Amino acid sequence: MSDNSSARRAGSTRRAFLSTSAVAAAGIPLLADAGSAAASPLAGPRSDAGLRDMLKHVDPRRMEATVRRLVSFGTRHTASSQDDPVRGIGAATNWVYGQLQDIAATSRGAMTVQKQTFIQPVSSRIPVPTTITNVIATMTGAASPQRYYVVTGHLDSRVTDVLDFTSDAPGADDDASGVAVVLELARLFATRPRFPGTLVFATVAGEEQGLYGSAFMAQQMAASGADVQGMFSNDIVGASRAWDGTKPDPHTLRLFVEGIPTAATAAQISLMQSVGGENDGATHQLARFVSQAAPFELTGMNVRVIWRRDRYLRGSDHLSFQQHGYPAARFTEPRENFNHEHQNTQVVDGVQFGDLIDFVDFDYMARVAKVNGAALWSLATAPGTPKNLKIHTTPPGTLSGTNITTLSWDPGPEPDLVGYEVVLRETTAADWTSAVNVGNVTTVDLDIAKDNVQFGIRAVDSAGHRSPVAFPTTVA
Ligand SMILES: [Zn+2]
């Protein structure tokens, strides 16, 4: 706890007081009226030695072998053969299932693998009822098994006509690259000691026909009460070349994050409008966490966060998780070449079209795996995001019009949780700029002019791991 804050018991509530002078002493740069001078950079999460070691073992040659094997199935279209042993989505699904079973066998019982199969009814892109199968490897958490972090790539592929299930659809970039990331992460995580939170490595299917596999998976998780605190779709993460093929950008990975949460109710949107919370949905907090957990010096990749749900008029499997209110985001390569996506393999006027293996970059893909690996490791290791954070504008016993603001939240369940930090920033800043330790409390009174800044809370464990930030979702 900071020397400048104090905690005291008030009934059963653990309470701290954060004064303007305490904030000034912490060097918070945003509060000019507190007389502070020095800027205080936000302390980021520590990179564990185990994480650094794991990332050294990301193997681009193994990922290349995965992409080559997936391309060898000819097509992985959702309506292609379910039972041909060498060609089609069924053979590809069986191969992925076998790979993940082999990986789970190295996990000393921590990882289990399931085929999640359902019949998708007829829709505009599903001419007949069609079997769709996700393959899901789950590494159950030791301390907080109901807290989930999910990473996906989609197994299915397509060509120009989304209903053409017979032509070759190599799908090397879209999305064998994402599947290769998922399999590589599963392989590397499986042999590590169990994490506090549960990790899910999944290949989903039916994406090109309407996100059907991920929609079913997310719906099943929501129905079971799974507390998904982070989800990443890796979709088109294999190529570093620019649209014109001339300017490689091999060290940038885009992360698309929604602004107003997709599942927000009218009342929740009204509250965001009222308090200026438009840029503080849970998915934005997830992106801020990723930026800190996966820095360039650890991954060789710059994460370019984009405040947009996806590219214009496009989507991916993160949307399925957003539908249930889960924080979910999409990784994708820096600048797509649309001649290589959703195209028949053909040469037109000397230009090669098609999603061919020649256009993907396995070293780039390996760096994508490192970004995901760093994010998932840090999420599953750190305490969960604080729950039920409320901001009380007129705390009990105070008169209206006070500048005192009270934050309260539910205590986290983690046994190694040692306390909380209040994070702050200017309303116009993209990311949190300051953090103040307030100790192991569940209520803090802030003598800070709340109208001028944004507040959040994050949890800290005994090793210094910080959770993603919770932003107040209730004003009392
Ligand atoms: Zn895709």
From TrEMBL:
The keyword Zinc does not apply. One of its GO terms (biological process) is polysaccharide catabolic process. Keywords: Aminopeptidase, Carbohydrate metabolism, Glycosidase, Hydrolase, Metalloprotease, Polysaccharide degradation, Protease, Secreted. GO terms for cellular component: extracellular region. Residues 385-476 form the Fibronectin type-III domain. GO terms for molecular function: aminopeptidase activity; hydrolase activity, acting on glycosyl bonds; metalloexopeptidase activity. Coiled coil: none annotated. It is found in: Secreted. SUPFAM superfamilies: Fibronectin type III, Zn-dependent exopeptidases. InterPro entries: FN3_dom (IPR003961), FN3_sf (IPR036116), Ig-like_fold (IPR013783), M28_fam (IPR045175), Peptidase_M28 (IPR007484), TAT_signal (IPR006311). PANTHER family: METALLOPEPTIDASE M28 FAMILY MEMBER, PEPTIDASE M28 DOMAIN-CONTAINING PROTEIN. This is Aminopeptidase. The lineage of its organism: Bacteria, Bacillati, Actinomycetota, Actinomycetes, Micromonosporales.
